[in-house]
Amino acid sequence: MASRLVNKLAFEQRSRAGCSNSSYVFVRCSACSFYYVYDEELEELYFDPAKLTKWSASISQSAPCAGCGAASWKLIAATEVELPAIATAGWYFCISTTR
Ligand SMILES: [Zn+2]
């Protein structure tokens, strides 16, 4: 099981969303290196760390990537080595420090 890289509390203090079962992971687009936060429980993607806006469609629908616009793309779970890039992308406020 992947380590939890997202600080749920910090994320939800900003998003005011999610539910008690929400479980977040950093993911990126397979076609570019655009990072998202994905709520595995609610199957919701967040693409804008400044606004914590949800991406337009659930993961089960085929919406284009918010980063590169590719119509055909997959989510890849980010790993710990990507944390610097994730922080640079604006998600630094919800990176877990207690893994
Ligand atoms: Zn992309």
Could you characterize what this model shows?
The structure is a single chain. The mean pLDDT is about 85. Strands 4-3-2-1-5 form a five-stranded antiparallel beta sheet, with helices on one face. The longest helix has 9 residues, at about 85-90. It is globular and about 35 Å long. It starts with 7 loop residues before the first helix and ends in an 8-residue tail after the last helix. It has about 100 residues and is α+β, with helices and mostly antiparallel strands. Helix content is about 15%, strand content about 20%. The structure holds zinc ion. Zinc ion binds near residues 31, 65 and 73. Zinc ion binds near residues 31 and 65.
Bound molecules: zinc ion
Structure summary, number of beta strands: 5
Report mean pLDDT, rounded to a whole number.
87
Shape: globular
The low-pLDDT segments are none
The amount of helix comes to 10-25%
Total number of helical segments?
2
Number of domains: 1
| Beta-strand content | 15-25%
The radius of gyration computed from the alpha-carbon positions, rounded to a whole number of angstroms, is 12 Å
Q: How are the strands ordered across the major sheet?
A: 4-3-2-1-5
| End-to-end separation | 13 Å
How can the largest sheet be summarized? 5 strands, antiparallel
**What structural class should be given to the helix and strand makeup?**
alpha+beta
The helix/strand series, from N terminus to C terminus, equals HEEEEEH
